[in-house]
Inverse folding.
């Protein structure tokens, strides 16, 4: 993403009604889109994705989510032209879809927490990093920048779960998607940026 500019509507006819929420892209995959509409930045849902005959990708989404007082700008659906230079994608599910770079695990990658794992880290105290702490995570065979949001502390200092937002490039979209991930704390696979002591978070 290079700059925030208003999204452009795509030449696709709107459906007569909002798609069933159980069948939307956001419900099935966890993906959300952030764009600018009428001068306002909005983080909203992806209802449907369509690749057009002209090579353009169009996404059906909800706009005017801030519900301005002006009735002429009511909340509504819109087909917009996907532009990775003006929009951002994210997946806020902790245990959501696997990113393309995560399909093959490499030696030395950070350990992603599975369902039911390390439950003792969620019964004690936790640390919140506001707005975040810059870290590097070993994933997909190399180090990647991410934003540490929370640390859930286990019974000992070296046992913890780290909640990190990390962007992974997705070829399908030609852009990075920011995934929310839960990793087992290990200074060899997750380290603060620019710290003299990488084991201190």
């Amino acid at each position: 993403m290079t700059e925030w500019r208003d999204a452009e509507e795509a030449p696709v006819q709107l459906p007569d009604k909002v798609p069933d929420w159980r069948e939307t892209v956001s419900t099935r995959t966890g993906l959300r889109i952030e764009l600018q509409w009428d001068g306002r930045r909005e983080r909203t849902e992806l209802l449907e994705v369509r690749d057009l005959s002209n090579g353009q990708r169009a996404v059906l989404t909800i706009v005017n989510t801030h519900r301005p007082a002006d009735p002429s700008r009511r909340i509504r659906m819109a087909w917009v032209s996907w532009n990775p230079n003006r929009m951002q994608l994210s997946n806020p599910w902790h245990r959501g879809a696997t990113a393309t770079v995560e399909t093959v695990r490499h030696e030395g990658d950070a350990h992603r927490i599975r369902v039911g794992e390390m439950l003792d880290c969620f019964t004690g105290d936790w640390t919140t990093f506001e707005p975040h702490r810059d870290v590097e995570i070993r994933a997909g065979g190399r180090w990647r920048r991410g934003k540490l949001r929370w640390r859930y502390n286990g019974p000992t200092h070296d046992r913890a779960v780290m909640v990190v937002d990390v962007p992974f490039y997705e070829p399908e979209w030609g852009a990075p998607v920011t995934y929310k991930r839960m990793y087992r704390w290990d200074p060899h696979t997750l380290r603060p940026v620019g710290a003299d002591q990488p084991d201190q978070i």
